[in-house]
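BACKBONE GEOMETRY TOKENS
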Amino acid sequence: MPLQLVCFDLDNTLWPVDAVIARAEALTWQWLAQRAPALAAQRDVEALRRQRLALLQAQPSYVHNLTALRRDAMAQALLESGYTGREARALADDAMAAFLGHRNRVEFFPGALELLEALAGRYRLAALSNGNADLARIGVDHLFDVVLSAEKVGRAKPDPAMFARALRDTGVAPTAAVHVGDHPEQDVLAARGHGLAAVWANPLRLPRPAGLPDDVPGFEDFHVLENLLADLDISL
């Protein structure tokens, strides 16, 4: 069966995200500290990060909605700093909006955007992300037939729900689909477990994970990915 659907993870697959998140957190903290001096007098950006991790540990279901996790951790910190429930929620909502604005200022890996533009006329494309990137804000939503996130589906990878939804929404069989992502478990092994082919994205040029099966192809440069997909199109 010829290849019909190419699914992509987003963060650290199409663009580097760690520095983007760090910058967004720092700028959001500046915004929040100006408007909530009582909070700023007691905490800093690192304290908010610890509070967010503690909330996730206490309520693991937040892994399926990272926006709610970040917003609710900020609201919790504001409440503990003396703000009323209404004040805390309003400030947290506005701070989250500020964060998302910064969080979606990404720079694609070399060749990634050009490849997406080329593939969009050849295959159906799907974006499958555990994060809260907004492809409309980034300006590439028109290249994708399906855009799914853990927040939208209600389950984060490696849960199969996102893969199942992408196949259902496109009407493509798993044997005619491939998923491209950087995370060995959440992307590669999860996709293969649901019957899709998988390609390990390594634009960060990291050592190959020990647990990655030898038959999983990988790439560092996006022009190589185009060739890998062409090979899959023949072999599937």
